[in-house]
Amino acid sequence: MPSKTVKTTTAAAVLALGLLASQPAIAANNTSDSQAFTFGVIGDIPYGDAEIAKFPSRIQDINADSALKFVTHVGDIKNGSSVCSDEYFANIRSQFDTFEHPLVFTPGDNEWVDCHRTSNGAYNPLERLDKLREVFFDEPGKTLGATMPVKTQEKLGLPENVRFTQNRVAFSVVNVQGSNNSLLPWSGLGETTPTPEQLAEVEHRTDAVLGQIRDTFTDAERRNDRAVVLMTQADMFDPSLLAAAAANPETVSGFREIVAAIIEETNRFDRPVYLINGDSHVFAENQPLAEGSPWLEVYGQPAADDLQRITVDGSANATNYVRFTVVGNSSDSDDVLSWEKVPFSQ
Q: Is the peptide bond before 196 cis (omega within 30 degrees of 0)?
């Protein structure tokens, strides 16, 4: 799958013309297929007081792009050195409620996995995960912001794992975490190895994620969908971790089963598969599982050439959202998705 050239659109300039919402729709309506659509993705935002203050404006910029079918926040609603308080969660939930599009949110490690850190309040991470589910997933099966129905794993205790379909594209958003999928010891609580309750949570969540991934592809095959889009917080192919992972693959052991399932299902599906993640904070577009990739040796897996990965900007780089465009059914393009970064107005 060829690499894309990333375009940027200045949100302020387009807003001034009143066209930000209509550009993708105009492009779709000028073709024989008006079922093309767009969606937006952000992640690792807001980080720190200055960005928290700007977050309402960021949301309004996204709201102004009224053609978006939905928006996904791929996790990390705070930085890794601030307190994981109930008050902070409530504040972000109130901001999320101002989204005018359906908002899909998957938790990030900064708001639960890493909350054992002294600077984060020395919480038990599993207690924080329970709180996140209480605050952000109080109506399982419905998105935040505008309501859009989604299938959830609520019955397994994971209401944050959701999937849905738009115009023959299957979307699956799953709770996969940085910090080796939550296997790093809770050092802030004095632990030097993973606790039994920690390991039980990782096993249960990973099994649920594997089940949802497989169900997503099975249903996509049955419906003859054109593509599958997976979204996670964790960057399972973080370039900054490659050297350490190559030297010791156990540093990414928490991702091994998930990567294997993605490869198996991608190769069986034999149509475009897109993985969208946050976590590593630097925009990237690549094929981390293509033939010759060093990650194949790290994970001990065969290639999956049909997988395209997109990492959204985060932290200090979170000055834009990524607008994805899905081509209409009549398109003869091999690329079902294209994307561009849209800078925030301030």
A: no
Q: CB-hemisphere CA count at 13 Å for 335?
A: 12
**Beta bridge pairs of residue 33:** none
Contact 52, 46 (CB under 8 A): yes
Q: Are 141 and 298 in contact (CB under 8 A)?
A: no
Residue 120 neighbours by CB distance under 10 Å? 24
**8 Å CB contact between 318 and 280:** no
Which residue, among 233, 210, 241, has the nearest Cα to 113 in the 3D structure? 233
pLDDT digits (tens, 9 = 90+) for 44-85: 999 999 999 999 999 999 999 999 999 999 999 999 999 999
The phi, psi pair for 169, rounded to 5°, reads -125, 125
The model's pTM: 0.91
Closest alpha carbon to 76 in 210, 234, 199, 204: 234
